[in-house]
C-alpha cells in the first residue's frame, strides 16, 4: 500500500466496469473498497433508518426534474437532522455524506465508488483525492452487463438505461452538477477497448503521477 494517504473516488456508468475495477484495485493496493450498497448499509445501521428509505430517496432524486432547475436548493452538507423531517431525501443524503467524510478521515487510504463522494470530499481532502470516472458506449455497457450479471439483452438494456438515469439524476439533485461533465473529474476512462485490468493500471499510473507510491 502507498505510504502517502490517498482517496480514490470512482464515478461510473452502469455496465462500464467501474465497480469491478474499483474492487480489484482496492484488493491490489490493500485498502478498503466502498460501493453504493456498502455505503447505504453502513448509513442505515448508524442512523437506524431502514435502507429502503435511502433507496426510495434515490429514485425520487432521479425523477424530480423540477428540483434540478434550482441549484440554490441543493441540500447543505452539514450535520443530518433528527426529528420529524429525518427521512427527507435531503437529510438522508446528509447522513450518507457524514459517513463518507468519516470514512475518508479515519481510513489510511480507501476507494469509494458512487454516492457523489467526489463532490462530498473535494474541499476537505483535495490533496489526497483522485477523482475517476469510468464510462463506455451503450453497446459495450450492454455486453458487459450481460456477461457480468448473466442476464439477457432485453434486461441488460433496461438496467443500463434505468440505473444510469438514476445515477445522473442523483448526482445533479444533490450537487447541482452534470454527472457526465468530465471537468468534475481528474481522469475519465473509456473502457470500450481495454479490459478492466488495464483500466486499473491506468488509475495506478495516475496515482504515480500524483506522487503516490503504488
Describe the structure.
The chain has nine helices and five strands; from the N terminus they run E-H-E-H-H-H-H-E-H-E-H-H-E-H. By secondary structure, it is of the alpha/beta class. It has one domain: Rossmann fold (3-Layer(aba) Sandwich). A five-stranded parallel sheet has the order 2-3-1-4-5, sandwiched between helices. Helix 1 packs across helix 9 (196-209) and helix 3 (51-63) crosses helix 8 (153-175). Mean pLDDT is 88; it is low at 65-72.
β-strand percent reads 5-15%
Order of helices and strands: EHEHHHHEHEHHEH
**What does the largest sheet look like?**
5 strands, parallel
Strand order of the largest sheet: 2-3-1-4-5
Into how many domains do the coordinates divide?
1
What is the first-to-last residue Cα distance? 6 Å
Helix content: 40-55%
Globular, elongated, flat, extended or rod-shaped: what is the shape? globular
Whole-number average pLDDT? 88
CATH architecture: 3-Layer(aba) Sandwich
Number of helices: 9
CATH class: Alpha Beta
Count of distinct strands: 5
Task: Predict the CATH topology.
Answer: Rossmann fold
Unreliable runs: 65-72
SS-derived structural category:
alpha/beta
Q: Find the CATH superfamily.
A: P-loop containing nucleotide triphosphate hydrolases
Rg, please?
17 Å
Amino acid at each position: 500500500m502507498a505510504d502517502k494517504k490517498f482517496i480514490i473516488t470512482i464515478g461510473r456508468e452502469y455496465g462500464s466496469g467501474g465497480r469491478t475495477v474499483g474492487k480489484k484495485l482496492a484488493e491490489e493496493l490493500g485498502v478498503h473498497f466502498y460501493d453504493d450498497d456498502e455505503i447505504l448499509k453502513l448509513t442505515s445501521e448508524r442512523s437506524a433508518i431502514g435502507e429502503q428509505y435511502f433507496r426510495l430517496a434515490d429514485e425520487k432524486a432521479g425523477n424530480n426534474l423540477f428540483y434540478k432547475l434550482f441549484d440554490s436548493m441543493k441540500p447543505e452538507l452539514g450535520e443530518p437532522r433528527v426529528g420529524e423531517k429525518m427521512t427527507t431525501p435531503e437529510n438522508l443524503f446528509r447522513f450518507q455524506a457524514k459517513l463518507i467524510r468519516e470514512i475518508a478521515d479515519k481510513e489510511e487510504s480507501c476507494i469509494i465508488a458512487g454516492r457523489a463522494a467526489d463532490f462530498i470530499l473535494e474541499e476537505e481532502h483535495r490533496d489526497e483525492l483522485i477523482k475517476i470516472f469510468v464510462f463506455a458506449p451503450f453497446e459495450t455497457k450492454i455486453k458487459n452487463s450481460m456477461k457480468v450479471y448473466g442476464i439477457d439483452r432485453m434486461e441488460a438494456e433496461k438496467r443500463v438505461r434505468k440505473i444510469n438515469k438514476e445515477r445522473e439524476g442523483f448526482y445533479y439533485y444533490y450537487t447541482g452538477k452534470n454527472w457526465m461533465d468530465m471537468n468534475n473529474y481528474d481522469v475519465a476512462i473509456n473502457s470500450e477497448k481495454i479490459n478492466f485490468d488495464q483500466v486499473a493500471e491506468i488509475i495506478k499510473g495516475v496515482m504515480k503521477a500524483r506522487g503516490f507510491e503504488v
